[in-house]
Prior knowledge:
This protein has helices spanning 9-18, 43-57, 72-78, 110-115, 117-129, 180-187; strands at residues 2-7, 20-25, 60-66, 85-90, 97-98, 100-102, 130-132, 140-146, 151-153, 156-160, 166-172, 195-201, 208-210. By secondary structure, it is an alpha+beta fold.
Amino acid sequence: MRVYHFTNLEFGLDDLRRKRLKVATISDLNDPFDFLALGSSDRGVRKALKMVRATMSSSMGLLCFSRNWANPVQWTHYSDGHRGICLGFDVPDELLKNVRYQKRRPALDMHAIESGGANGIKEFEKLLTVKYDHWRYEQEVRNFIPLREARLDSNAYFIPFSPILMLREVIVGYRCELTRATLTKQLGRTKRDVLTSKARLSFRSFRVVPQRDERLWS
């Protein structure tokens, strides 16, 4: 599946130069309900959920992607107000989990979790993928990464580009001053396998689209 990762220009160029992508830790996530979305009126259950979240935070990270790059709100929130870039990757479908958006917090079925089996796994996956409905615009998919498989660098974790994290596109934000020549230099030998484009605002809709006039991207 082709999926997209938004970033500011500084971090994006560093990713391209070092051919790697930062792994988000659970404690880094900007939604405080992440991994706590299942609701319960039982104080003991809520405490247990927080302990599970803390335990997962020390051992598991994730790569957060979107299914497309056309939403201007995502460029604003995650790509420095359209001054950054968006990286498109091909990732095997089986490695990705779709985020499920809901208006109400689903109740936690502790019996299913304690019983194990397929129902237990299904219930546990809700912890990993359920988010409040107002996040729906992100169209998020997640790739969960054991932190032991990532590389630690300056207190952050990274995963190298690879056949299962294959860079295929770089879209330059419409306010970004990155030139075609500089981007080509950063891509190096991978340029021949990567589609590059400049974004612009659509003339007829609230979308971000490719700039087809190459004269407008030097």
